[in-house]
Design brief:
The protein has 484 residues and is an alpha/beta fold. The chain folds into 2 domains: 7-254 and 460-479, 3-Layer(aba) Sandwich (Aldehyde Dehydrogenase, Chain A, domain 1); 259-452, 3-Layer(aba) Sandwich (Aldehyde Dehydrogenase, Chain A, domain 2), CATH 3.40.309.10. Helices cover 40% and strands 22% of the residues. The protein has 16 helices and 25 strands. It has a 7-stranded mixed sheet, sandwiched between helices. It has a 6-stranded mixed sheet with strand order 10-9-8-11-12-24, sandwiched between helices. It is globular. It binds nicotinamide-adenine-dinucleotide (NAD). Nicotinamide-adenine-dinucleotide is lined by residues 151-155, 178, 180-181, 211-212, 215-216, 219, 230-232, 235, 238-239, 254-255, 287, 333, 336, 386, 388.
Length: 484
């Protein structure tokens, strides 16, 4: 790992650190101060070509021949190394993304757990035999796709790298990763640890660079057999269109506008801290952030007062001081969030509460103290589109029908939370809400390594995490034998 203050990070291709073929670099800024502290190679199609070639050779070489048990053992050693380097990786994640250090620690722990989970699952992924004609035996084998492309975002670099690459390698693929230009240092460091764990060169390659250059080259590459993408809906469409030209399957995880529904009989002492945490976590830059709170009218006033008090008590500041909320990732993101909130306020949306900025927050940092919005018209952009900042929009409803209509009334369908003590209503609402995950009387933004995760509607398709994620990195090969 580079150690000086403007460290020069490199791609990892075929087991070797490499400069960009162009020799060009990108600056890496600290979101807490806005200052440059490292550089990345600005990769392009030439670097992607080299990485895909290396991955293909790995598929045909030692990695392709490794048994499922051997793959699992590599992942288990990798998990142990991540745990050993936990504090170093957490400090790096905190600096690179700006997230509070306790959140960064949790993310690194989750990454180690993904490798552990998929290490254990690698040799438990079975195919099937199929009853067919007399005198025949038919097998449906689960085989890896081959070379998998992974385009990952900046909000959870370590976690999303872990869930995607951990599953793909466990299933026997070789990977080419395009991490996000705004935050990709932990994936680079994690990849170096994979080599230490015994992963053969070429089985895992990372190409840094801009989305429009390295990312687009990977999405359009004819040598890729599958793409996993997490990020914005617009980029997801571009990636899927580019992959379609080569008939490459794509998994898309595209964010959401996830609702938390509070019924009048809910245990508010349990619900309210979770409602606040679900939008403040990672400064709201979470695909599954609980960005809407729907409140039954009978408790609307009380809940708004209690939420406002909680928002006003939050501290927003540099990640290293472990505040409730860190800075946003970039100036661009700060401007985007600010513009969306300004437009909403100009249209009559009321700010019900705002958190405070800590004195230690540097003026160059990208801080946006958490905000609670009231009187939000359900059709307004701020109620429909992903803000990707710590902005919670509140709505009132009467009864289950209106609650379901509001919950389902956006283009997205990623996650939802339902808070009620009525058991029958818990199930009715869980069935009615159009989302890939519904939590009842709890909420986990993105929740759980062991839980299938992914969207309905514009939130995307395909599932990551859990065993389902592992299956997604395989395809079926049918072998039909006529033996008489
Ligand atoms: P993005 O979707 O553009 O970037 C995600 C990844 O895709 C990055 O690695 C990027 O380099 C890559 N990429 C960008 N353009 C590409 C292209 N043409 N072809 C291939 N890869 C490409 O996200 P962003 O611009 O960094 O953020 C914009 C908005 O997207 C955010 O404000 C937020 O609303 C949303 N977002 C969502 C998630 C999520 O987890 N769902 C993550 C990041 C951003």
């Amino acid at each position: 790992m580079p150690s000086n203050e403007t460290a020069r990070w490199l791609h990892l291709i075929d087991g070797e650190p490499r400069e960009a073929a162009s020799g060009r670099t990108l600056d890496v800024a600290d979101p807490s101060t806005g200052e440059r502290f490292a550089t990345l190679p600005r990769g392009d199609a030439r670097d992607v070509d080299a990485a895909v070639d290396a991955a293909r050779r790995a598929c045909r070489g030692a990695w392709g021949r490794a048994t499922a048990t051997e793959r699992g053992r590599v992942l288990m050693r990798w998990s142990a190394l991540v745990a050993q380097h936990h504090e170093e990786l957490a400090a790096l994640e905190c600096r690179d993304t700006g997230k509070p250090i306790s959140q960064a620690r949790a993310d690194i722990g989750a990454c180690a757990r993904y490798f552990e989970y998929y290490a254990g699952a690698a040799d438990k992924l079975h195919g099937e035999t199929i009853p067919y004609a007399a005198g025949s035996t038919v097998m449906a084998l689960r085989v890896p796709h081959g070379v998998t492309g992974h385009i990952i975002p900046w909000n959870y670099p370590a976690q999303i790298f872990g869930r995607s690459v951990g599953a793909a390698l466990a299933a026997g693929n070789a990977c080419v990763v395009k991490p996000a230009e705004d935050a990709c240092l932990t994936p680079l460091r994690l990849a170096a640890l994979a080599l230490e764990a015994g992963l053969p060169p070429g089985a895992l390659n990372l190409v840094c660079g801009l989305g429009a250059e390295a990312g687009a080259a990977l999405a359009a590459h004819p040598g890729i057999d599958h793409i996993s993408f997490t990020g914005s809906p617009q980029t997801g469409t571009a990636v899927a269109q580019a992959a379609a030209v080569n008939h490459v399957p794509v998994t898309l995880e595209l964010g959401g506008k996830s609702p938390q529904l509070l019924f009048a009989d809910a245990d508010l002492d349990a619900a309210l801290p979770v409602v606040v945490q679900a939008i403040v976590q990672n400064a709201g830059q979470t695909c599954a952030a609980g960005s809407r709170v729907l409140i039954e009218r009978a408790i609307h006033e009380e809940v708004m007062e209690r939420l406002a008090a909680r928002f006003e008590a939050l501290r927003c500041g540099p990640g290293r001081l472990d505040p409730d909320c860190g800075p946003l990732i970039s100036r661009r993101q700060l401007e985007r969030v600010g513009a969306m909130v300004e437009a909403a306020c100009a249209d009559g949306v009321r700010v019900a509460a705002r958190a405070r900025l800590m004195d230690e927050a540097a003026s160059g940092g990208h801080y946006f103290p958490p905000l609670l919005l009231a009187q939000v018209p359900p059709a307004h952009d701020i109620a429909q589109q992903e803000v990707f900042g710590p902005v919670l929009a509140a709505f009132a409803f009467d009864g289950e029908d209106e609650a379901a209509a509001l919950a389902n009334g956006t283009p997205y369908g990623l996650t939802a939370g339902v808070w009620t003590r009525d058991g029958a209503r818990q199930l009715r609402m869980a069935h009615r809400i159009e989302a890939g995950q519904v939590f009842v009387n709890n909420y986990g933004a993105g929740g759980g390594i062991e839980l299938p995760f992914g969207g309905m509607k514009h939130s995307g398709h395909g599932r990551e995490k859990a065993f389902e994620g592992l299956r997604g990195f395989t395809t079926i090969k049918t072998i039909a034998i006529r033996h008489g």
